[in-house]
Specification:
GO terms for molecular function: aminopeptidase activity; metal ion binding; metalloexopeptidase activity. Residues 1-22 form the signal peptide. It holds the Pfam family Peptidase_M28. This protein has helices at residues 4-22, 38-43, 47-62, 74-88, 169-178, 213-224, 275-292, 314-321, 325-329, 365-378, 394-399, 417-423, 447-466, 488-497, and strands at residues 94-115, 118-120, 123-124, 131-140, 159-163, 183-187, 208-211, 230-251, 255-265, 299-306, 331-337, 348-350, 384-386, 404-408. It has 508 residues and is of the alpha/beta class. The chain starts with a helix and ends in an 11-residue tail after the last helix. Bound molecules: zinc ion (ZN). The site of zinc ion (ZN) has 6 residues, from α7.
Length: 508
């Protein structure tokens, strides 16, 4: 129904816009920026800006030897610098903090196997040694290679082809190496994909790769028939300690006791530049952070670009562990954005009320989910609850009792028929066919969810940046993480510096 009141509202809004553009309010101090408004903030999020950011991150990755943005790599350090420089260019709107973190990572790796020039799907084994060989014949190993006598003398200088089963990978590889094989290829003994696993620890074994059962049996049959099958392999991983940073930007405006906190991870895996995972979320935040800098907020707004998410949420966990319980209790809501432009997307909102997956978050998680649901509903866009399992940077915040929500468009899960009917794409295929792979680049982003999710982030920032009305208060008992080390830089300045707007009557 189109009623009288809505017509009035349109007129009033139109007048407001005209007045403010014709006659800007005098700005005697920076504290008099206008209070954030939903529609203008949402309308200022454009696909071209999101894409420019994504392209910049891809260029940063591709300018480095491993073409990725793994925590501690040159690609990641330059990503951190990119976020920091972009935020600093906004003047003094944000206080920017870099929080250092070191952990062991795989900077680059290769898993390639071919026979007679044809590539096969392959995998490496954990703790497998680096190895490269070219045009080396395959030799079949009898039985399962568990006994030294299973290994023919002819493996010397060649590559041993061995079936999985009965004994450990280490035993098979040790036996083949003892007879002089230069490498081993183990194929599966069941229809369970490519043979892979762990060798248990550091060792001096010959390099090893895995194949599927079907590929292994086919190659073994050709060798058995007397054919010379030459193989080439390239298995290596460069693993070392890497140091990089969380980037944390805190708005100058707003009440530091009622913080809206938004985060996205800035690192990738070693296989690719990580543009959907998670250049998309990183750029969504950066674009909104830039747009917000024209406005005043009543709540303090913090943005974080977390490092080492791909190593196990380590950057975000480090932040939570080094925050005091008192500081964590000031976070009214943490919003997470990880993969918001998946090529075979659906529109997901973290299922904070447990309606789909029966896992609920701290009170407020449901309210934030509803905020997003209503916003997409109003645009006639269907959304689904997304599993609220803590498998991204919000996990440590959930553990600390902070209400959480967020958006995602799917990772390695498989699109349903129903979702295909709604969003298009391909049912039965992963939401992101390039998940954790080299193809996770700008050319494979889905543009529609990228833009609409970017605007949804802006809507949440405008809403809670202005008021927490209707949002449950944090309970002191929600903070379950004990005070540990303090991050003094963040603590000491916060209450004194960021006090613009706190004098207003707030409806928290
Ligand atoms: Zn991710």
């Amino acid at each position: 129904m189109k009623g009288f009141n809505s017509a009035m509202a349109i007129t009033a809004a139109g007048l407001l816009v005209m007045t403010s553009s014709a006659e800007p309010l005098p700005r005697s101090s920076k504290c008099e920026s206008p209070l954030v408004q939903d529609k203008p903030l949402v309308d200022s999020i454009h696909l071209k800006d999101l894409l420019k950011c994504a392209q910049d991150l891809e260029d940063i990755a591709y300018a480095t030897p491993y073409r990725n943005r793994v925590h501690g790599s040159e690609g990641h350090k330059n990503s951190v610098k990119y976020f920091k420089d972009t935020l600093e260019a906004l003047g003094d709107y944000y206080t920017i903090e870099l929080q250092e973190y070191t952990t062991e990572v795989t900077f680059g790796s290769s898993r390639v196997f071919s026979a007679d020039g044809i590539d096969f799907a392959t995998d490496s084994f954990e703790y497998g040694n680096n190895g490269t060989w070219t045009d080396v014949p395959l030799v079949n190993v009898a039985n399962l290679g568990c006994n030294p006598e299973d290994i023919p003398d002819s493996v010397a200088g060649n590559v041993a082809l061995i079936a999985r089963g009965s004994c450990t990978f280490v035993q098979k590889i040790t036996n083949a190496g003892a007879k002089g094989a230069v490498a081993a290829i183990i194929y599966n003994n069941a229809e369970a994909g490519i043979a892979a696993g762990t060798l248990g620890g550091v060792n001096d074994l010959i390099p090893v790769g895995g194949l599927t059962r079907a590929d292994g049996l086919a190659l073994a049959a050709r060798v058995e028939a007397g054919e010379t099958v030459t193989s080439s392999g390239d298995y290596w991983a460069y693993v070392d300690f890497g140091t990089s940073h969380n980037v944390i930007a805190t708005s100058k405006y707003g009440d530091p006791n009622n913080v809206l906190f938004l985060g996205a991870h800035s690192d990738s895996v070693d296989k690719g530049p990580g543009i959907n995972d998670n250049g998309s979320g990183s750029c969504g935040l950066l674009t909104v952070a830039k747009a917000l800098s024209k406005w005043r907020t009543n709540s303090q707004v913090k943005f974080a670009w977390w490092t080492a998410e791909e190593e196990g949420l380590l950057g975000a966990e480090h932040f939570v562990e080094t925050s005091t319980a008192a500081d964590l209790a000031k976070i009214r809501l943490y919003l997470n954005f990880d993969m918001i432009a998946s090529p075979n997307y659906y529109l997901g909102i973290y299922d904070g009320d447990g309606s789909r997956y029966n896992i609920t978050g701290p009170p407020g998680s449901d309210v934030a989910e509803k905020l997003f649901e209503d916003w997409f509903d109003a645009k006639n866009l269907t959304t689904f609850g997304s599993e609220f399992n803590g498998r991204s940077d919000y996990g440590p915040f959930l553990d600390a009792g902070v209400p959480c929500s967020g958006l995602d468009t799917g990772a390695d899960g498989v699109k349903t028929e129903e979702e295909m009917t709604i969003y298009g794409g391909i049912a039965g295929e992963p939401y992101d066919q390039n998940y954790h792979d080299a193809g996770d680049n700008v050319s494979n982003l889905a543009l529609f969810p990228f833009e609409v999710n970017g605007k949804a982030i802006a809507h949440a920032v405008a809403t809670y940046g202005k008021s927490w009305e209707g949002f449950p208060a944090r309970l002191a008992s929600n903070s379950t993480i004990p005070a540990r080390r303090h991050v003094h830089a963040r603590e000491s300045g916060a209450s004194k510096r960021h006090n613009c707007g706190v004098n207003e009557v707030l409806d928290y």
